[in-house]
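We store chain and fold; example below:
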Amino acid sequence: MISERIKNLNNDLLSLSGTITTHLKYRQQLLLDYEEKSKSIKDLELNINLHQKGMEFLNFLINKTRTDIYNNLASIVNYGAKEMFGPETEFKIEPDIRGNIPTCKFFIKTKELDEFIELDKTNENHGGGLSELISFLLQIVIHKISGCKANFIICDERFRQLSEDKIETLAQLIYKLHESF
């Protein structure tokens, strides 16, 4: 009976030893899987971080490019507006969003206006064709930026609001712009 009991205990011990060995192998496999998954997670975190940095950089470039374009547009329009309406005339562009569409607002300041006001809200009595001039200058700039092959712009009654005393100045401005482009 004791020998049978010892035999049963040995069998139980062997069975337990096999179970422990199986669990140890399973544990080792789990640890390897854990290390592999941890490495994958770290790689993913690194990729996410790199992606975020890339997106930040692209957004910076987009904003920088947009700002440069706005500044270049504004400088050309400022040049024309100052030529036509005096050195105190200023023009600026501010980015805007209408709905989901990026757009911009145009602002003007003249000697009659104490502060910048949105171009759409200017009173033509202050401008004597200022809105038409700025619209024309923006059309020229966009025409050049877009790479349009045509060497002309149609100005059907473009300057009907322009004061008569400004017509000669306008002609000189158009000539200067033609020479510079």
